[in-house]
Specification:
alpha+beta, 3-stranded antiparallel sheet, 4 helices, 3 strands
Amino acid sequence: MEEKAMQNDEVLDIYEMSRYLRCSVDTIRRMVQRKHLPHYRVGNRIFTRKSFLDEWILNQVTCSVENNAYAE
């Protein structure tokens, strides 16, 4: 089953990452440079899987919610 999920998991380049996250390519490059986004390189090109970004987004939301809970 996991193999099937990997086959359907879309690979995104930096421009597609930018559109998916709705931020500039420069922002994506900075986040990659600071190792804030899950990614891998092929030569000088930057890629990720859509599922990696979905998991990253979920973790960002979870962290925000947890931080707000402690602030109250």
